[in-house]
Protein 1
Amino acid sequence: MTHLDILIPFGLPPPELASDLFRELNAPALATLTARAKTEAASRHERHDDFSRTLPHESWLGRRFGRDSRLRVSGSLPVAGSMMRHLGVTADNVADNGLWFVVEPVHIHIARDHLVLTDPRQLMLTEPDARVLFEIAKPLFNECGHDLRYGNARYWFLRADAWDALQTASPEAATGHNIDIWMPKGPGERDWRKVQNEVQMHWFDHAINNAREERRLKPVNSIWLWGAEHIGIKYDARPYDAVFNFEGWLQALAAGDVTVNTATAASSVLSSQSRQALVVLDDLQEPALSSDWANWIDGLRRIENDWCAPLLDALKSGTITSMTLIITNDTGLSRFTTTRSSLRKFWVKPSLATLCP
């Protein structure tokens, strides 16, 4: 394999917790890969705006897969049209060409003086319940002149050609925060809020939500808009011939000629025939968003044992020519490119402190 990129969303600890978390970790392979990277220290770290509408790893993916121009317009990563094709919602019918958004059923809870979005992955909405809620919402959108289509229990799609300049935020970027800052802004925001409120009222106290609360599940009480993309657009960027662990909306990024695989350990990747590959290790995002640092530490230990240690050995043996760790949190991104020759810097002591700017 010529080169391997490893993307680890939320692998960077919050600066105020870094020293305490690192004391709990024993990750010599990760410490070696980062400390002996050939990347210049000055160019390793990117700082992102605290109120960015995309997370740093989402922005990085947008750049790698050639979607950054639309990302600057829409605020959130443009994936709706690609997701629709992936889920079979449209077969590239000319009549469907237009601007589509992702609509996600979500739970919003009331904090002391504001509303907070809960991580959508915690919703555990079943297909039968999602279908019922979708059929309630669809005519409300039809009344406003918008086409709402069902993808699966988590992802629905809305056509709104007139909202081309509407800025939206990815749900992961907004999770855990006051949603006022991340709500859609620009032409169409009032129309969106009106239909969003209608949906919320129709779902309030519905039998499905009452049953969920009896099972101690969060009610599905709102919807989130993001991911605007023109369905007919094609992207030329082909940075990889294989990608691993692309789940959910990530699958929309992989073009038809890119092999999409699942890998639970480095051995699966090392045995592949790809030259340029990307692996996403997304085990840390959910515990980080919920501030569950015990599970975050456990997840990073698994990454150390299942990925960093064998990949370090692969670099030493020449099985891999080079690899780059792209590690992020909610406000920053750090890159560490390591080669067999850079590992020879024996005078550089391995240290996890290299992760933090």
Note: The chain has a mean pLDDT of 92.
Protein 2
Amino acid sequence: MKHSLDILPLSSWIDTNGKPLIIAGPCSAETEEQLVSTAHLLANTGKVNVLRAGIWKPRTRPGEFEGIGSIGLEWLKRAKEETGLLTATEVATAQHVKEALAAGVDVLWVGARSTANPFTVQEIADAIQESGVDIPVLIKNPVNPDLSLWLGAIERINRAGIKKIGAIHRGFSSYEKTAFRNEPMWDLAIQLKTIAPELPLINDPSHICGNRELIPYVTQKALDMDMQGLIIESHIDPSVAWTDAKQQVTPAALADLLDSVNVRKAESNNPAFEDKLAELRQQIDKLDDQILKTIGDRMKIAEKIGEYKRDNNVTILQVSRWDEIVQKRVQLAKALNLGEDFTVKYLELLHNESIRKQNEIMNVKTATEA
């Protein structure tokens, strides 16, 4: 279901010359020299549109570096004056909003922890609305994979009269240990693009990866998924960074990265390409119809099994049978070059629907007898 947002296209509020929006800068403003020097190096690449820097840092535990504070806004102002780069910082309270706007910050973003709290988002939205300032606001996804929270935060900012809005995909926390600091969960980003297609979506490979080695891979994938920009942490000397040292890159490394990625077009004006694409999509549509019909036939058999179990007073769930299905189908899926995670998730969906149908059958019989 699509959501209607009253927003302006990205191209109307920042000129990127038809290229992806690039926001870059240190995780934290540490010293004036560190921030301004980094800004100059980023500006010299000719590839960066906006300088980012954390002024206030929401940390998990007290005693850690929680940002340099308001003085950093003056450093951002100086960096902007000397380089011409627009500036951006995170805000988490009404006071942050007030100070950032007073300092002439050009773009605000709402962090993942703030997005997870509707009260915090509303406070930020109210503060921006009361200021009467028309400023772009980017909303990061919440820490946990909750699409409704993400969309709700975007709607709150939009209802405050802000039309220059974008979403930042920075990955989601997960108990499972993987190569990523935050699991990208690309499917949630795709869902957001599907229900709000007019919303600019910007990828944050730094926070997804947690280490600079994986950033090129995630960057290319994000651009291939037609995301409109990137926000990448860049520090003049990442080895001595006060926060997130492992995931920051030097301005020179950032320039090399942006030179190496392939920026593809969302569409093609080649008639031959469009004709072939339409032909292949017709084949997919036909196969999708066949798949749904086959699933429907499978569920009819599952219903018969439910009736048989009911009449013989047998439980719905039989773990040994489920294990057998998974093992056999995963082996077949591998032979067909299908991913194991995809296969298991697909089987789980089928299994859950079968259980739901069989449960209905058993409960109907019980209700009739009662």
Note: The beta strands are 21-25, 50-52, 86-90, 107-110, 137-140, 165-169, 201-203, 229-233.
